[in-house]
Amino acid sequence: SALLHGKWDESSELQWTLSQPIKLSPELSRRGLIEPAVAEMPDGRILMVTRGSNQGRNDTNVDRMIPGYRWYSISSDG
Length: 78
Description:
Layout: E1 4-8, E2 14-18, E3 33-40, E4 46-52, E5 70-75
Antiparallel strand pairs: 1-2, 3-4, 4-5
């Protein structure tokens, strides 16, 4: 999962930058990080919440026993 950030420049053009990717081991999330949500907090920091998923793999019975999790990151540099 990564964040695509758009910012308007002086000539009213959108300039896009891509954050560093966030990676997890398959033991934590079989399908990586999905459904990111981003919000600006009242103090100006940026909050990103995303979730992992262990559904969709039927090669072992262990997958059904591994719960899905949510992760968050707070950025103070915008």
